[in-house]
Amino acid sequence: MIYSNKYISLLIVIFAISIGVTISGCDDRTIDAFEEQQGLYSIYGALEVGSSTNYIRIRKVDTPLLADSTAFEGTVTFTDLETGFSTELNDTIVEYNGNFTHNFLIDQLIEYDREYLVQVESPDGDITESIASTPQQSTVQFLPSDNINCETELTFSFSNVVEPEFIRMDIGVSYQGVFRQSTLEFVDQIRHKDGADEMYVELSPRHMLVEIFPPPLPDNTSIDPKTLNPTVTCFQIEPRTFLLDIYHFGKEWDGALPSRSANLDIESGDIQNGLGFFGGYSKQTVSVPVVI
Fold first, then answer.
1. Mean pLDDT, 10 residues at a time, over the chain (292 residues)?
2. Sheet with 115-121, side-by-side order of all strands
């Protein structure tokens, strides 16, 4: 699901569909409905806070899905709505598995707690646009923070997560010389704390290993995943450190990922007069050492 191209490798959630959904995973009736109209564009992009290299993929919806490498028809502008700074983006044609896509480079630093507008204007003056909101800076903490063994119950907290923003956690360890990673979604869910702009989850290292190395699941669907034992133990991972990639998603993702799954709803309404998704997020990595 994760492509290795430099400009999309960071988009774990959306650029699996940036190329894949438009070509093979989308409801044909949705595409047909848009293709009956002229001058509309699809926009796919996710702005990473702290990065000065972000790409937006744009396609004129009434062109064939397997378009060739012809020049892009239209003008794309990118605006920081806080400063008012606006720039016209240049088209870069990228080939992926024989398919050509128009990718527009944003080479300015993306800031926390900002709104960014992308507008695509057709030669006839029709405009497709969307605003991506980046989240505030979040602090990640876990307690206790030392002398952690495999059964230590850790409370992870994430500050400045204003609903409907949310956190996604990818858990990784090295086992037999290979780095293994999985998204936290089976063992437990990260929840908002009542009355606070904060999310939290309670996990032990064993629980996190169940997420990465789950055992054969029993027929009893009501079983608590936290009671299961992983097929790989804390004694078997080397180094004995968990690496957690923490993704803090801006508010637009709530409508596009209502179930927090890896499949975006491209009809979430995020793109005005068009199709696709445009949002902002931040990422940080936290290490959790385990003492056996």
1. 32 40 35 46 95 93 66 93 96 79 94 98 94 97 96 98 96 97 94 96 98 90 92 97 97 82 72 93 97 82
2. 86-88, 75-80, 115-121, 127-133
